[in-house]
Description:
The structure is a single chain. It contains eight helices and eleven strands. The protein is α/β, with parallel strands linked by helices. The strands form three sheets. Strands 2-1-3-4-5 form a five-stranded parallel sheet, sandwiched between helices. It is elongated.
Amino acid sequence: MAGTILLVEDEEDIATLVKAYLERDGFRVVWASKGVDGLLALEQQEVRLAILDLQLPDADGLDLCRAIREQSRLPIVILTARDEEVDRITGLELGADDYVPKPFSPRELVARVRAVLRRAEPAPVEEPATLGDVVVDREAHAVTVGGSPVELTAKEFDLLAYFAEHAGIVLSRDRLLDRVWGLAFPGGTRTVDVHVAQLRKKLARPELIRTVRGSGYKAVGR
């Protein structure tokens, strides 16, 4: 189950269609046909995202959007036939994360819901990679050797991180040039050799990055 979506929509045929597509994609859908029922559902359910119509029988969807945003950072997608520029701007300014006008493609709506959820979810914390007593922390952009910090240039850091994350794998110079510098880099594979030499010197652990004759390099832990 991908989580619960709150759908506030007064037109039953549209609600049924949206619910079917979301459930097909693994979501659980709580449907409310009135704004007051939508707010009540938020109090009673653990909801990942709300889809709001603007034209509700008991409330303006923009007011509902405002009320939700005053309470939480819950992702909100507005789904409505009101496609005036002022409505779109107002909805986004009130804190809506996306605005889908009717008529709409159910598949596109599901894709937009997925995209909004991806943006809303916190990025996973990357665990530091290690090579022996060398620790490479991408989150902190820091390297330590035996617990002591080592200063590297930005490209030296990127190269070391790639080695640490692919330890035990023989990496050709062309692959390293592609993944660390990018295909457009004009320096050629000699650049890789120069940076490997610098890493060996700065880390004082030359045995951690081995030369594989005729193939490239391989990072190993001790």
